[in-house]
Amino acid sequence: MQLETLMDTMSRQQVPEGALYVIGTPIGNICDISLRALTVLEVADVVACEDTRNTRSLLSAYGLSKPLLAAHQHNEREVAGQLTARLERGERIALVSDAGTPGISDPGARIVDSLREAGCHIVPIPGPSAAVAALSISGFTDNGFRFVGFLPIKHAQRLTFLRALQNTPETLVFYEAPHRIKEMLDSLSQVFGGDRRVMVGRELTKLFEETWRGTLSAVGEWISSDPNRTRGEFVILVEGVQVDEGQSGEDEAKRILSILLESMPVSGAVATAVKITGLKKNLLYNVALRLKA
Ligand code: SAM
Hints:
The protein contains twelve helices and ten strands. The protein has 293 residues and is an alpha/beta fold. The chain is globular. The chain starts with a helix and ends with a helix. Bound molecules: S-adenosylmethionine (SAM).
């Protein structure tokens, strides 16, 4: 699309009044903002934000200046009441956090929850998120992923929390602060074992962006080999448990079918097992016949 056509499309974007626009903003690179986000910010009556100083400087980078309303983790429910009243008056409200997508390890979810309960019109304006940025370059997304965010700070609690995730087949997505990164990686290795694959994304989209993929047994050495590697912002992805699908599916089929066959004919047991496991009918039928024999 030519630039002129794109500008034309942008000027024709619908930004209805009386709606809350939840806007993703850059996680480091000022250029990572969508044209639609800029369009909405330009016409917004007020911008609800995590930290007014950060958002003022973000808006000024785009030549914008707007009334701001602080909406942080300590006043979200209160602010929601004010926002509902403003929406009823027909205002357009933008909601942003300091970086990335509001509500993702950031304030925003409670406001959205309250406004939804109040029946308000809420519109997503998608943008960056460190989790999705890291996932997109990991090669770990075949089995889906589970967003964890920040782990408990205390060592014992962190280990307990991680143990509950030990057998998760989906890739796990963690955020961590730089001063805790080494300790956190140690905990991951302790619970998941050294062979599990990990990807670390550091300072994504920024000047000194770095990513590293390897095993948990090697990640400590990578982090320690350069003092800069304990600075900046980190996303850590741990690949999920790799199961041999064929084998685990068959084991599950055997377990479930042997229970069902005690009280059902083969056809009924197979039909029920399909519903329970989501496995293919053919596989279940063959297993059922073997069990019967
Ligand atoms: N709402 C944000 C999002 O959508 O990604 C996350 C906010 S959370 C308070 C901040 C954490 O996100 C950081 O401590 C870090 O773990 C991760 N993060 C944010 N920006 C990042 C970046 N550029 N590179 C790596 N990790 C980042």
